[in-house]
Amino acid sequence: MRQVIILLAVLWVCDGVKFGPLCSGNPNNSRRTSDRYGQGYYGASRGGRSHKGLDIVCRDGSTVYAPFDVTLHGKLTVYTDPSKAAINEGINLRGEGLCFKLFYVRPDKTSGSVRKGERIGTMLPMQSVYPGITSHIHVQMCDQSDPTGYF
Fold first, then answer.
1. What is the pLDDT of residue 8?
2. pTM, whole model, 2 decimals?
3. Is the Cβ–Cβ distance between 106 and 51 less than 8 Å?
4. Buried b / exposed e across 84-117, counting CB within 10 Å, b at 16+?
5. Which residues is 70 bridged to in the sheet?
């Protein structure tokens, strides 16, 4: 019985986690819908694969914020293709019991802690690589599960 109560408590706490605003100019975390490059929802078709994250609209050069209190766990490389070098950065984060990644962000720092709403970096120039796309931050859970419920 005690295990059931603990499990329910963990589910209740995790269920209440919501991302605060990620990007200046997008206080409601509006999602990328459809553009000439595809759609931004989790599971959207990407040719022979499926999209493993959720795209949150963010203008090139915008300030990116911590969605809640987080610890930074290093910079990440998004692509191996040198033609995409302009947007080939991101950051690994943990907070509120979640492990997640933000793609297309140049982090101000790659370790330590950041409080909710504090600046963590800058949105990279997505238009320089994908002209006409809806510029966005790609949010991907470390286990590649669907992040939609946290928004």
1. 43
2. 0.88
3. no
4. eeebbbbbbbebbebebbbbbbbbeeeeeebeee
5. 114
